[in-house]
Design a protein that fits this description.
The protein is mainly beta and 206 residues long. 4% of the residues lie in helices and 61% in strands. It is globular and about 50 Å long.
Length: 206
């Protein structure tokens, strides 16, 4: 899920070491998962949509994400956000990610690739080499919770702790306060988060 900025300027990541039972592995091994679309709400007001389209090429699954959101006070837009990401997982493991994000006119980009036993990051703040077991916090695949995670919008490591509250719900706490909910097959079903300004952000699958 993309990172977005809570009003007026504070940030929250919505965008993503346990697993749901075998279903996530089976879905990735069998081919591309089903495409996902979400309506995004802030305090029950519809502010945008988030779409993930999947393609499969042998052992590789590619997820292409587009999220567009606008928050208004009356008729005036006070927050505009567009996030585009292309993530590839090969044999169920993170392989690469490219993202481009514009938040209220500010552009950010991230390129990440698993190679030579590490994940190499190139982003607006420079380059970094991370451990091979890191995943981007892109939410659509619960396998991201197996190990440490990095921010897909900034490329920085996340300071969060994750717990499995029920067989289908994961709680993320720390610099992000949110719950991700999956169906019985491991497909991303919904999300709910608390923004820094106290507002509630919800993802509802459509």
């Amino acid at each position: 899920m993309p990172q977005f900025e809570a009003l007026p300027s504070r940030r929250l990541i919505l965008a993503g070491g346990l697993l749901l039972p075998l279903a996530p592995h089976m879905a990735l091994a069998a081919g591309a998962p089903r495409n996902l679309s979400f309506a995004v709400f802030r305090n029950n007001a519809h502010i945008g949509e988030h779409h993930i389209n999947f393609a499969s090429d042998g052992a590789a699954v590619t997820a292409t994400t587009d999220a567009v959101m606008t928050v208004k006070i009356g008729p005036v837009p006070v927050f505009k956000y567009h996030h585009h990401a292309v993530e590839t997982r090969r044999d169920g493991l993170f392989a690469s990610l490219e993202t481009a994000t514009t938040t209220n006119g500010k552009a950010e980009r991230v390129e990440a690739e698993r190679t030579d036993g590490a994940v190499r990051i190139d982003c607006a703040t420079g380059k970094a080499i991370l451990a091979a077991n890191v995943n981007p916090l892109t939410h659509w695949n619960p396998r991201i919770f197996e190990g440490p995670m990095f921010n897909p919008q900034t490329g920085k490591m996340m300071k969060v702790r994750v717990s499995r509250e029920t067989p289908t719900r994961w709680a993320i706490r720390g610099e992000v306060e949110m719950d991700d909910i999956y169906d019985e097959t491991g497909a991303w079903l919904a999300a709910k988060a608390k923004a820094d300004d106290g507002s509630t952000i919800e993802y509802r699958r459509i």
